Amino acid sequence: MAQNFFRSTWRCFNRTSQSACKLHSCWHAAVHCESSLHYSESYRRVSLRPMRIISLLPAATEIAGALGLTEQVVGVSHECDFPEEANERPRVTHCPIHNAGLTSHEVDAWVRRALRENGTIYSIDEALLRDLRPDVILTQKLCDVCAVGYGTVAKLAQTLPGPPRVVNLEPTSLADIFDDIRRVAETCDIPERAQKLIRNLSERVENVRERTARIRERRRCFLMEWVDPPFCSGHWGPELVEIAGGHDPLGRKHQPSAEVEWQHVLDACPEVIVLALCGYDISRARCDYELLVKFPGFDSIPAVRSGEIYVVNASAYFSRPGPRIVDSLEILAGILHPNEFSEFVSRGSDDLRVVCMSQGARTELYRGSKADSRPA
Q1: What is the torsional sign of CA 241, 175, 213, 216?
Q2: What CA–CA distance (Å, rounded) separates 15 from 192?
Q3: Per CATH, domain 47-170 is 3.40.50.10860
Q4: What is the distance between the alpha carbons of residues 224 and 234, in angstroms, rounded to a whole number?
Q5: pTM, to two decimals
Q6: Strand pairing partners for 108?
Q7: What kind of fold does domain 217-366 have according to CATH?
Q8: Which of 102, 141, 153, 266 lies deepest, with the highest CB count within 10 Å?
Q9: Taking the CA of residue 256 as centre, how many other CA atoms within 13 Å lie in the half-sphere pointing to its CB?
Q10: What is the pLDDT of residues 151-184, one digit of tens each?
Q11: Of all residues in the chain, what percent are helix, strand and coil, respectively (each to 5)?
């Protein structure tokens, strides 16, 4: 009887040991796998270590931060500055005229020449990119002026170990921006975080939409993307104006922004002008406001006569298609209908987002919702 007991115990121990050996072998193979990543039959990426992300877009860096992925972002573009931790990451791109102090006319001329001669205005530090060993690279096809082109990044990625997955973000509308949030989350296997974030953002959008639906007056609002030469807004810009209770007679909804004749601006008779200059913060945009006031016929514009010209921080909000695009909507709602959206209007200076310019005299400050875009 004792002999049967020991025989039974040995069989149990032997099976357990074999299972442990198999488990150890699997673990050993995984740890020593060259990339420590593999693809299943569904091509779903399974990571045995934290995913290493390089973001070549300020909006993508912001999306990653809102999804709780900041610690996994190992490299960023020269323009990424939010969340604050992005300023501590290695910069893998460069632009010769970034912070060079050029006028908007000089910037426009340089960009046109660079695109004509070189096809791009950016360079990538390939050696640094290799050293960072990314699993995912977030980039875009939308605009050759906004960031490094998708084709350049995709070609380079094919020469890297793995190779890393290149994720294209190409929004032209508010819905597309939300889709990009989903795309980043799904790529990093955290779709549930995107659902929570998008639900929060969507509720804020609907709050504005439902309230402006009751407003009969649709004020003519020119959302200006560049001053010299003048550019109208495109993509999501006119859509934001529309949801905020206005109408942009010059905007190109869901299409690229475009140069417009100054006479067309005068003919449109905008009641409100918002200077959302691509890539410019308020300080830089105010310099271009001083150019705008010298344009012929400027004083005849209704927005000028009523003192409703606003300079906004487009770099952080309007021209950055990330979670704070909803802040942009709330800023517009506060500008167009301050009585209805008094919660978006503030006299404080702790969160400067927009300044009202009345020949340089008025400095009323507006701010968006304090609602946190990040997941709890």
Answers
A1: positive
A2: 39
A3: no
A4: 10
A5: 0.81
A6: none
A7: Rossmann fold (3.40.50)
A8: 153
A9: 9
A10: 888 899 999 998 999 999 999 999 999 999 999 9
A11: 45, 15, 40
